[in-house]
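Entry for the shared binder. Reason: the reviewer on the internal report wants the predicted structure included alongside the sequence.
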Amino acid sequence: MSHKNNEQDLGLGNFSSRLKTYVMGYIGCIILTLAAFFIARHSLNTQIALVISVVALAIIQLFVQLKCFLHVGFQSGSRWNLSTLIFTAIIIIALVGGSLWIMFSLDTMMSF
């Protein structure tokens, strides 16, 4: 029976790579949040450019969080996570979209 070194026995090699991923994700999210705050606070662009840039930064931050914190990827081991995430997104879009549709329909009917 061969013995692995203590770092592998304790899983510290895997821990250090996970910690690096978490720290990089955290720093990336902080930078993206501060960038969105700076853009919104100083209004350097027109209104539509402001909305587009903040939404773009939010989408980038979503992907950073999916990759660094939820470990969602396109590897064969994480396909179940990805399919579960897509199903959840479809349900949320259906619920929010249906609620908005009902509210706008009721608003239209009440304005007559």
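Summary line for the report: The chain has four helices and no strands.
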